[in-house]
Amino acid sequence: MKRHFLGWLDDRSGWRKLAHEALYENVPGGARWRYVWGSTLVFTFVVQILTGLFLWMGYAPSATTAWESVNYIQEEMWGGWLLRGLHHFTAQSMVVLMVIHLMQVVIDGAYKAPRELNFWTGVVLMLLVLGLSLTGYLLPWDQKGFWASKVATSLAGLVPGVGSMVQQFLIGGPDYGHHTLTRFFAFHAGFLPAMVAAVLGVHLYVFRRHGIKARDPKRRPDVGFWPDQIFCDAVACLAVLGAVLTLTVWHRGAELSGPADPSEPYPAARPEWYFLFLFQFLKYFPGHWEIVGALVIPGVLLGVFVLMPVLGRWELGHRFNVVFLFSILAAAGFLTWRAWAEDRANPGYQLAVTRAAGEAARVKELASVLGIPSSGAVTLLRQDPLTEGPKLFARHCATCHRFGGHDGMGGTVADAASAPDLKGFATRDWIAGTVDPERVGSVHYFGGTKFKEGKMVRWTRREVPKFDAVQREALVKVVEALSAEAALPAQARLDADGAVRIEEGRKAFDGVVKCSECHQFRKPNEDATGPDLTGYGSRSWLVDFIANPKHDRFYGKRNDRMPAYGDEKILDARAIGLVADWLRGEWVRATNGVGSLAGGR
Amino acid sequence: MLGAIAVLVPASAALMVGLDPVRRRGRNVSTFPFVKVATLEAVPRDGTPRKFAVVADKIDAWNRVPNVPIGAVYLRRVEERKVVAIQVLCPHAGCFVDYQPEKKSFLCPCHNSLFGVDGSIQSADSPSPRGLDVLEVELRNRNEVWVKFQNFEAGRKEKVAVV
Questions:
Q1: For tag attachment on chain B, is the N or C end more exposed, with fewer CB atoms within 10 Å?
Q2: pLDDT (0 to 100) of residue B31
Q3: Which pLDDT belongs to residue A601?
Q4: Three-class DSSP category at B123
Q5: Are residues B146 and B55 in contact, defined by beta-carbon separation less than 8 angstroms?
Q6: Is residue B29 within 8 angstroms of chain A, CB to CB?
Q7: From the list B70, B157, B162, which residue is nearest A288 (CB)?
Q8: A478-to-A217, A281, A433, A530 alpha-carbon distances in Å
Q9: Nearest Cβ partner of B109 from A349, A395, A563?
Q10: Residue A565 parent element (H or E)
Q11: Residues A312, A318: contact at Cβ < 8 Å?
C-alpha cells in the first residue's frame, strides 16, 4: 500500500530522482570533516528561520511594545528565554562558521574557476547575514541595541551626496521611532531572509553543478554523499547546536538591557563582538577622515575579496589571496582585542556596564510587580525613585550633600562636602548623630555648613556630655520618637515594636531633654527657632523641606546655601517626590514573588 | 507590455510606501520649537555644565505623545544671565557624551572624542569632525531657560539640522 502510494507520488513529482541526486552526489576522495562547514551554515540558517518565526509570534515592533514584548517572551513565556537565547547565539555561531567556511574555501582554492559564482554568491550571503545581525540588534529596543544601532545608521549618513537620504530611508524618519522598528523588522524578518534563501539556492545549485572541490591528494576512493558525508555533517551540526545550547544556558538566554531612552546616556553601548573591530577602527580616523575608516577602506577590502577568483587564476594570485585573508583576520583580531582591552582598562565603562545591568534588573522587577503601562516600560523607570532618585541627587544635591560618601551614583565629588551626608536620613542612627557630641559637628552633619558653630552643635557639645543616666535614656527615646515620625519603610517593624518607648520619647522631647526650647514638635510652640520636627523625615516633611528650606517652618531666614528647589522651580513636584522617596528608601519591591508598594503609599 | 504594467503598478505602490520617509525629508522643521528646559537657578553659577532632559510633545509616526523626554542637553552658565545649551549627542556617530568634571571636558564613551567645556574639539586626533552642537537659547519670563532643541547630522564638518 505504502509502496503503491510512493510510486504514485513519484510518477507525479519525480521525487525519487531528486532524492537520489541529493543523497548520492559524488564526494571525490571520500567523506572528510573539512567539508562540513557549508552544511553547518545551512543548518544554522534553518535554525534561525524556525526560532525567528516563533519569536515573531510574540514580538510587536513599535517603540512602546518592542522591549515590552521581548521582555514578555524572555520572562513570561514558556521556554521563551531558551528560544531567544538559541536565536541570539546561533546568529553568533553563524558569523564564526562563515569565517571558517571562507578560510577553507580560500585555502583550498575552491573559489577558482569554474567556481567563481559559488564564491561571489558566498560573499553576498556573508553580507546579508551581517545585515541580518545589524537589523536584529535593534529589534529588542533596549538601550544597548538603540545606542549601538545609532552609531551604525549614522555611518550610512556618510555616503557622499545621498547619505542623509539613505539614513532616513533606513530609519524611517528624521529620528528613531516606531517606523525604525517596523522597517528594521521588515528587513530582518522579510527582505533579508528571503534574499538569503534565494542566493543560497543559487549558491547550492552551482555548488552541486561543480561538485566538491576535492582536497588533493585524494586519500580514498570517491563515495556518495550518503551516508558517510551526511554523518560527518550531522555530527558537526550537533556540535554547533551543543555549543549554542551551552552558551544559551550559561548566559541564561540573550541579554536584554533596559528599555531604550533617548534622554538617558548608555556609555556601555557596544556593537556585537564581531563588529567591534570596525568600531575600534573608527577611533583612528580624526575628523572628516571618518568616511575613510567607515566606508572607503572596508569597501576596498571587500573589493579585493570580490576579485579573488580573478586573482586566483595565477599561482601567485592564489598565494596573495591566502596571505590577504589571514592579514585581514589578524588585523580584525588585533582591533577586537584592542577594543576589548581598552574597555577593560576603563573604569568608566566598567561602571556603566554594572549600572546597565542594575537598571535592566530593576525594570524587570518593576514590570513584574506593577505590570507595564501602555506608554511602555521606560515610564516605569522614569517614575521609579530607586532609578531616578540617585540621578537627581547626583545632579542637583551632590555638589553640597553626599550619600554614603559618594554622589548617590557611586561617583566621587571633587569639592569637599558642605552639607550633611543623607544616607540613612531620619533613621535612628542618623538622628542619633545629631545629638552625639562627636558626630554633630563633623562633615557628615553640620561640619560643612554655617551651622557648624550653631545652636544645635553648641547645645549638643555642651549639654549632652553632662547628661545623667536618666537623661541619656530619655535622649535615646527622643531619637526613637523622632525617627518614628519619618515612618521609614525599613524601620516599620522597629517603630511598631517600640511604640511604648516612642510615646515616652515624645514626652521627653519637651520634658527631660528640653528639645522644645528651640524646636516645635506636635503642638504649637511660639518660642521655636529651629526647624519644626513634627513629621520629621516623613515624605511630606521632606518634600516641603526640599521645596523650600527657607520657609519659617524650617530654617527661615537663617537657611544656609540650600536653594528652594520647588519654589524656585529648579525641580518639579514629581522630581522632588522621587528624591524624597529615594532618600527614605521608599520604592516598589518584589517580595516573596508578590509585589507590594513598600511603605503603603 | 501588459506584463510590465502588471508588475509596475504594485511595485510602484510598494516603492511609494517604502520611500515615504524620504519624501517627508525637510518637512519636519515644525517639530523643533523652543522647549522650556529648566530655570536659571537650576544651572550652576560656577559654569559647570549640568544635564537636563528635554521634555516635549513627541510625534512618532501614528502617535502624538505629550510631555516625554525627546533628548537631553547640557546647560552651562557663562554669565549671570546667559546660558549656553549643548546637544548631548556626539557629532561623530551619535553617542551620548559624558561631562567629566575632573577634566572639565566632555568625553564620548564610544570613540573617545574629547570636547572642551564650551563644546569645542580638544585634540586634533579627535574622531569627531566638529565640536558639540550648540543650540539656540532664550531666557523667558524672568528665569526660564528655553532651548530650540534639534538634532544634527553626524559625521559632517558642517552643522546640518536633521529635518
A1: N
A2: 59
A3: 32
A4: coil
A5: no
A6: no
A7: B157
A8: 94, 64, 13, 16
A9: A349
A10: none
A11: yes
User: Using CB atoms within 10 A of its CB, is residue B44 exposed (0-12), middle (13-18) or buried (19+)?
Assistant: middle
pTM (two decimals): 0.91
Please say whether the dihedral angle defined by the alpha carbons of residues A461, A467, A469 and A470, taken in this order, is positive or negative.
negative
- CA of A162: which chain B residue's CA is closest? B22
Distance in angstroms (rounded) separating the CA atoms of residues A403 and A409: 9
Segment B38-53, tens digit of pLDDT: 999 889 988 999 999 9
Residue B28 banded pLDDT, cuts 50, 70, 90: low
The pair phi, psi for residue B69, each rounded to 5°, is -65, 125
- Cβ atoms of residues B139 and B83 within 8 Å: yes
Render the burial of A468-487: b for 16+ CB within 10 Å, e for the rest.
eeebeebbbbbbbbbbbbbb
Give chain A's residues under pLDDT 50.
Answer: 593-601
Q: Is A32 helix (H, G, I), strand (E, B) or coil?
A: coil
Query: What pLDDT, on a 0 to 100 scale, did the predictor assign at position A595?
Result: 44
Is there a contact between B157 and A287 if contact means CB atoms under 8 Å apart? yes
A401, A393 in Cβ contact below 8 A?
A: yes
Amino acid identity at A584: R
B38 contacts A570? CB cut-off 8 A: yes
pLDDT on residue A513: 87
Say which residue the cell 541595541 belongs to.
Answer: A145
Three-class DSSP category at A579: helix
- Give the model's pLDDT for residue A125: 98
Q: Is B111 left (phi over 0), alpha (psi -120 to 50) or beta?
A: alpha
| Per-residue model confidence (pLDDT) at position B32 | 67
Q: Check if B101 contacts A (Cβ < 8 Å).
A: yes
The pLDDT assigned to B30 comes to 54
Q: How confident is the model at residue B29 (pLDDT cuts 50, 70, 90)?
A: low
Nearest-neighbour CA in chain B from A173: distance (Å):
5
Instruction: Lay out the sheet containing B144-148: strands in order across.
Output: B34-39, B144-148, B137-140
Q: List Cα–Cα distances, A553 to A514, A520, A523, A533, A546, in angstroms.
A: 19, 9, 13, 9, 12
Mean pLDDT confidence for B13-40: 85
- B156 — pLDDT class (breaks 50, 70, 90): confident
What residues have CB less than 8 Å from A105, skipping those under 6 apart? A111, A119, A122
The sign one gets for the Cα dihedral A275, A278, A280, A286 is negative
Q: Which three cell numbers stand for residue A321?
A: 589571496
pLDDT of residue B101: 86
Rounded distance between C-alpha atoms, residue A178 and residue B60, angstroms? 6
Q: ipTM score here?
A: 0.93
Tell if the CB–CB gap between B98 and A282 is shorter than 8 Å.
no
Contacts of A64 in chain B (CB under 8 A): 63
- One-letter amino acid of A228: D
